[in-house]
# Entry
Amino acid sequence: MIERFLEQEKAITRVLGADKKTCHLVPTWQDLEVLEATNKAVKPLQDFTDALSGESYVSVSCIKPVLHLFKTSLLLPEEEDLELTKTIKANIMRYLESKYCDLEKEELLDMATLLDPRFRTTYIDASKLEVVKKRAVSEISAFCNSTTEEAGPSAVQENTPPKKKMALGAFFKNSAPSTMPHPQSEKTKVETELATYFLIPDIEPDTDPLEWWKLHQPNFPRLSLLAKKYLSIPATSAPSERVFSVGGGIVTCNRACLKPEVVDRLIFLAKNV
# Structure
């Protein structure tokens, strides 16, 4: 809106100045200076706000990279900036940092960034990297163990086959030295997957992380489970808010008797047709 006003400033001034009732609304140079300073500070944020509000692609893992970009580039005060612009940039950055300083949010964002093959450890604080890795190993191990327990032991066959006579060579199996490697623990397998994941070359920034994990799932069967859990989280509540806004437009006073299943169908049609 501010950018549009500045583009049409001359036309607006001419229209307001032509009428005595509105001539006092003609923007002064101080007003224009404030608008220009504000526009310069907030304009770079629009594209990122729209991108993080998407729902058809991974967005949560982009929060830390975007915050880093804001802090080191887009919201960094410049020499030619007015004091108002510098103040606005500083306040925006302070607000964003306070919004994501909560421990639970930091842990979630660190894990999501780690599991995005485009970023991995790039935007994670070096002092917290080992902690994040250990937490990833712990979560995957716990998930795999719980899955194994739920599956339970296989059912024993009711009809037991007749006992076979033992061959002569079987007596020497127990006495022969074992050359088979010891089976790896679940934790060791997860650690191996994670170490291999970090050795993979960097991928293009426009690669879809979910498609990447789908393609590499055979190589990382355990790690891909954790990636699905975290990368499916939306970065903002905008997608759900859009659904509620559609529902609010459907369920009005004149349609208060609609059945819930009818409302669900109408919302689905409104979002997909």
About this structure: The CA atoms of residues 60 and 235 lie 4 Å apart. The chain has a mean pLDDT of 81.
